[in-house]
Amino acid sequence: METLSAIIGEINGIVWGPMMLVLILGVGLFLMLGLRLMPILKLGKGFQLLFEGRKSKQGEENEGEISPFQALMTALSATVGTGNIAGVATAVFLGGPGALFWMWCTALVGMATKFSEAVLAVKYREVDEHGNHVGGPMYYIKNGLGSKWTWLGTAFAIFGAVAAFGIGNTVQSNSVADVLQANFGLNVWVTGGILTVLVGAVLIGGIKRIGNVAGALVPLMAIAYLSAGIVVLAINADAIPAALDLVFTHAFTPTAAEGGFAGAAVWAAIRFGVARGVFSNEAGLGSAPIAHAAAQTKDPVRQGLVAMLGTFIDTIIICSITGLVIITSGEWTSGVSGAALTSAAFAEALPGVGNYLVAIALAIFAFTTIIGWSFYGERCIEFLFGVKAIIPYRILWIAAVPVGAGVSLDFIWLVADTLNAMMALPNLIALALLSPVVFKLTREYFNRQESAPEQATQEK
User: Half-sphere exposure of 321 toward its Cβ, with a 13 Å CA cutoff?
Assistant: First the structure.
């Protein structure tokens, strides 16, 4: 195991090196500028369309399987997970408070990335043998870039099908087992068994049941966690200015060793901020567009405007709350990492209650991530082997849940982190090459929006 960890560690250092960070931020910035800051300027429009898309509309039933709202909730169910609790804590532990600033930067340009992914997913989606709409990077690479690029789509599907077992399955079950054992004394194998039964019950119903469960659980758990975080920040209100100063200062200057914190260079803040930011919101990874391809919509840009909200909600809102709670509590210098650090931060402000709130939130977050990512993995394996491969993949997925619960957390995080980068590479290349399509569709959509009121006025 030590040899394997060393090999994967070497690969991780390469795939998460300077070139990858430049590629993620660079492609996101390129798309944001090409869209003329539209994702930021039209944030309100996105929330409006999200509200309107809670239910499918007449005449659009055959255009997808789930409502635009459920598509976003399915994507959020996969993104809002241990990355928001354990991932943020790990970023601060390894990179210092400045890592939070780089998570924000990743999220801001990531909104343009996520928008573009969803636009292309709906534009180039297909209908499979079961009559379901399928899409994502592998399809927009194949249908958008042509047959000579099919190998790149195949590479994404292979990395996605395997990576799903890390980021979307074993990392999640491992974190749940760890936090429930620490707070409630629950045996890790018991946790694994319960998760297996619950995941299996949802997956039997396919994307429609996943959409229904995600549509109910995600808003509820997000609001509950945010409320608890806001209460903690209200208690620590006096420490917020100093915390923000630490975030902005140490984004550009090294963080000195303090207490159990070993100190961190600026490069560490950037690296872990960007890596954990991507792990959390998945912008650029190519996972979320797989869910958005199933949305009941005829307009790719409408779904793109809804999709970009996922990055905003996940990182700018939820991760910020977690990061500020950790920094204002002072626990970030304790030497504790992962979910345990977040639990300690909440418990510092809410003794006897805070750690249990985090444990329950993480368990629910991780459960929805497991069911959301199962859908991503299925679509990747379907692209490679057809619909016949879905059931065997689903069985393997369910079987991996209890296994993940009992494996070393450090090793699983390392594997998941490495596979994330392997997924991102083909997707980011495709986004850059297909950016003219995104810009053209976006321009046409907003031109129609602007001309519609004028036509209505003329008719009157």
Answer: 22
Residue 206: alpha-carbon gap to chain centroid? 20
Q: Which helix (H) or strand (E) holds 134?
A: strand 133-134
Cα(92)–Cα(323) distance, integer angstroms: 8
- Give CA–CA dist 307/392, Å, rounded: 30
CB 106 within 8 A of CB 278: yes
- Joined tokens for residue 145: 């870039």
C-alpha to C-alpha distances, 351 to 9, 167, 232, 259, 419, nearest whole angstrom: 38, 31, 11, 22, 38
Binning pLDDT at 50, 70 and 90, where does residue 61 land? very low
Task: Tell me which of 177 and 144 has the higher pLDDT.
Answer: 144
Judge contact between 92 and 331, C-beta under 8 A: no
CA dihedral 415, 81, 184, 335 (to 10 degrees): 60
Cβ neighbours around 210 below 10 Å, total: 26
Q: Which residue bears the tokens 């789509």?
A: 153
Q: 127: phi > 0 → left, psi -120 to 50 → alpha, else beta; which? A: beta
Radius of gyration of the chain (CA): 21
| CA contacts within 13 A on the Cβ side of 448 | 9
User: What does the DSSP 8-state code read for residue 252?
Assistant: T
187-221 confidence digits (pLDDT tens): 989 999 999 998 998 887 777 777 778 777 878 88
Q: What angle do CA 378, 214, 162 make, to 5 degrees?
A: 25
Residue 317 and residue 242: Cα distance in Å, rounded?
19
Mind listing the pLDDT tens digit for each residue in 380-397? 999 999 999 999 999 999
* Averaged pLDDT score across all residues of the chain: 87
Where helices occur in 96-149 by DSSP H, the ranges are 98-123, 137-145
Secondary structure class of 206 (helix, strand, coil): helix
